[in-house]
Amino acid sequence: MTTVFRYLAMAGALAVALDSSAALAQTGLDSAKVPPVPTDIQVPAGNTLFLKGRAQGTQSYICLPATSGFDWKFVAPQATLFFDLKLGSIDFHQQIITHFLSPNPDEASTPRATWQGSIDTSAVWAKAVVISSDPAFVAPGAIPWLRLEAVGTERGPNGGDLLAHTTFVQRLNTAGGIAPVAGCSSVGNVGATALVPYTADYFFYKATKTQ
Question: With 90 as the cut, is the pLDDT of residue 93 above it?
Answer without folding.
Answer: no
